Amino acid sequence: MQEGQIFIDVLTGVFNRRYLYSHLPSLLEKAKKEDSSVGMLMIDVDNFKGINDSYGHLVGDEVLKKIAHTFKKILRSQDKIIRYAGDEFIILIEGADISHLKDIARRLIEEVKRIEFEKDIRCTISIGIAQYPQDAGSFQELIELADQALYFSKRRGKDKMYFISEVKKEEITLKIARNLFPCKKFIGREKEILKAKKIFDDALREYKPGCFFICGNIGVGKTRFLQEINNYFKNKCYFISSTGEKERINIPYYLITEAFRNFFKSCRKEFIKDIFSHLPPDEANQLILLFSEVEEILQTAPAEKKEWGEEKRFFLFKGFRDLLLSLLERKPVLVSFDNVHYADIATLELIYYFLRLPHPISLLINGAFISQYVTEETPLFGILENFRKEKRFTEISLEGFNKEEINELIKTIFEGLAASPLFIEEIEKSTGGNPYFIEEILKLLVEEGFVFYHNDKWQIKEKEGLKLPFSLEEVIKRRLSNLDPEVKELLFEASLIGQQFDVKALSELHKRDEGYILEILERAKSAHLIVEDFFQGVFRFNFVNPFIRETIYTQAEKKDLKTEDIHQRIQTLQPSLSKYQNILKEISKGFTPQEIEKYLEELSSEAIREKTEVSLSAEIIREIYELIRLMVASIKNIRLFPSSNSVRVAVLRGTFCVLKNILEKVESIRFDNMEKKLIVNGKIFSKKEKIYAYVEYFLSFIEEFNLRSISFYRDIQEQELNLFLEGLSLHPQEIAFEGGWEKFLKDMVITHIRVKEVYSEKMKREKIEDVILLE
After folding, report:
1. Which of 141, 258, 587, 758 is 20 to 30 A removed from 217 (C-alpha atoms)?
2. Which letter does DSSP use for residue 470 in this model?
3. Kind and range of the H or E element at 370?
């Protein structure tokens, strides 16, 4: 079973959970094509926790090793043995019918009983069985059904095995209920959804920024609302998102950094290389420090200075700005921040900057905040005031569900459940119609036996004196109190990592194998406190709701647990994560909100210009004026004369000589057009010069082609310059019709000239329409 160490469980030597999630989908696809089946046996070691508690984890580990070894002896080489969690195993058997699967299960049960363990320990196992496609239509459903059958086996006294078709649902109410939350259907909010969609649809149609924020109380459904909108639009856009965290609110740029870290995880390496190749070196160097994955892809480690001065912070701000602009030049961008009430001031000012841009950009921004968490001390407070005054965004408020929506929610979760009007009224009275609060109460009622499955339908005991919690915090605490101490401890440590966390960090923190950690997390999953996600070979877990994480974190702080000590241990175990967080913390030492205002003022006056280390001398300025005059003359001559004409050849030759002479003194020359002013390497060229008429003519070329800037680099070849000037001599629609300047430069193999276009899908469409009309 040599599939690479990444898929092998270190303790037992069988496959691990990562293998299951990576290979099971393709295994089922193969069975579908071959009209075959895949049987799944989910196995649990009975009373294993008691073995660990009585004899210690080392003895428990030896028990698991011997059981795994026994499985290997019994099964065929093509059968897949997987350690799914601590003491849970999964066996995948292809092409076997029900009777054969049961025979294998019986033999496994008997052979485990015969194993001789140290300290006279005796073990038994319970097994649940399900088949694809006879029972399940997907790999998630197959795992869930096998798990339900296993749960039934243990309920029936352990040391048994049952097929899913033999399971009586009345006896596994808790296990079935686990899959019912959160509610699969999006209920209500029709007016609000239409309003949000219109804001974004209008923004995309008119090529302008569109922004809305969802506000409301804790648990009113803001996150679910964002998901609904984002799922609708993110296939049309680059999707960049993150969630605010209270502990990091004073760290500048943390929210936008997290958003880009999430985005880069889903990007191809070539795409990331291309994006960063278009950024000025000073900006790219500061950004790469924050993204270890980008550093690895680019195979560069920029020098990190100890002091983060204002200039470096300025390049970081510009870097994020230009990173977004670079994406916007390709297609629309959707930026989404949940828990934006915990956003840092630098991220908010960056968003504010984009909302005020006069250029046509297809940028969609949304966020969600808890109204009562926005106080004068939070950065969002002041930004919202500005947004409201300047009408930069739309505020959409969510209220609690009414009785009809509450009833629909309950019926959707528990199909066929007939709740009385009195019960609905009690739920509304207790929760205020808060959807998340309602779901938490329903989970509690299932756990405490008031909601149950009987006679093929869900039922409820509506007895008098049923006390419902009157606060969301109360119901969460009540549910947390039912957890084992080790589950509570692990969830607390996970809450220190963040809203999202992975198994590896927790495994290294506890110095226990991943299987042990997964077993504890499975219990937290069963309690509907966390959800699991397998992405690019990594198991990621999320708290079901940020409020659960905050409640766990706050409870631990009140009990005076050593949060700072655990924080430090977590950082040492996540070097790439702690590295960028430490950099951002270092930035914050000299950072002030007033500094951002200064950046914005400078950017608004200087637009997209670049700073260079070499100032332009009077001699270089004269040569640049001459270069502009010769470029204008070259473009005119190219339009007038054939390529062999001696005048045309001489002027082109002279243009190249002047350019090369300048580039011997500076690394590059960048021409920017800002509001009909020419800026060269950061210097605004004066209109007082007699030759400025040529400058205006040159600017007209730039505007015709919707160019924001043109850069020439040292080592440019004469042929490159000639081809570029020939491009400028064409009609702008010809360049647009052929795919734009970026494609033109690539096709012509022009590597020492770069341009930035003023991007707009509307402009592109208008250009193509103009070409059609011309033809």
Report:
1. 258
2. S
3. strand 363-370
Q: How far apart are CA 584 and CA 291, in angstroms?
A: 12
Q: What are phi and psi of 469, to 5 degrees?
A: -60, 145
Closest residue by Cα to residue 526 from 443, 453, 461: 443
Q: Is 286 left (phi over 0), alpha (psi -120 to 50) or beta?
A: alpha
Phi, psi of 306 (to 5 degrees): -75, -40
| Contacts of residue 490, Cβ cutoff 8 Å, sequence gap at least 6 | 506, 510, 517, 520, 521, 524
Phi, psi for 437 (deg, rounded to 5): -60, -45
Distance between start and end Cα atoms, the chain: 65
Half-sphere exposure of 26 (CA within 13 A, CB side): 5
Prediction pTM value: 0.72
Q: 638 with 729: CB under 8 angstroms?
A: yes
In this structure, the chain runs to a length of: 775
Give the separation between CA 186 and CA 190, rounded to whole angstroms.
10
Q: What angle is formed at CA 167 by the lines to CA 161 and CA 170, rounded to 5 degrees?
A: 135
Residue 245 CA, chain-centre distance (Å), reads 15
Query: 538 forms bridges with which residues in the sheet?
Result: 535
Rounded Cα distance between 654 and 631, Å, is 9
**Identity at 165, one-letter amino acid code:** S
Residue with tokens 């309003």, as numbered in its chain? 195
Residue 685 DSSP label? P
How many angstroms separate the Cα of 633 from the Cα of each of 369, 622, 693, 700? 58, 17, 12, 14
Decide: 547 and 472 in contact? Cβ < 8 Å.
Answer: yes
Question: Taking the mean position of all CA atoms in its chain, how far away is CA 536?
Answer: 12
The CATH code for residues 483-573 is 1.10.10.10
CATH number of 5-167: 3.30.70.270
Q: Exposed/middle/buried for 606, CB within 10 Å: 0-12, 13-18, 19+?
A: middle
pLDDT mean by block of 10 residues, the chain; 775 residues: 72 93 93 96 94 90 95 94 95 94 96 91 95 94 95 93 93 86 93 97 90 94 95 94 91 93 90 87 85 79 57 82 89 95 93 82 94 92 88 94 96 90 91 93 88 89 73 86 88 85 82 86 88 72 86 72 63 59 68 64 48 64 90 91 90 94 89 77 66 79 82 91 92 81 87 75 43 38
Work out the number of other CB atoms within 10 angstroms of the CB of residue 313.
Answer: 21
Q: Kind and range of the H or E element at 656?
A: helix 646-663
CATH class of 190-397: alpha beta
CA distance 690 to 701: 20
Whether the Cβ atoms of residue 245 and residue 498 lie closer than 8 Å to each other: yes
Report which of 353, 335, 367 is spatially closest to residue 213, judged by C-alpha positions: 367
Rounded to whole angstroms, the Cα distance separating 522 from 719 reads: 65
**Exposure class string for 400-414: b at 16+ Cβ within 10 A, else e:** bbeeebbbbbbeebb
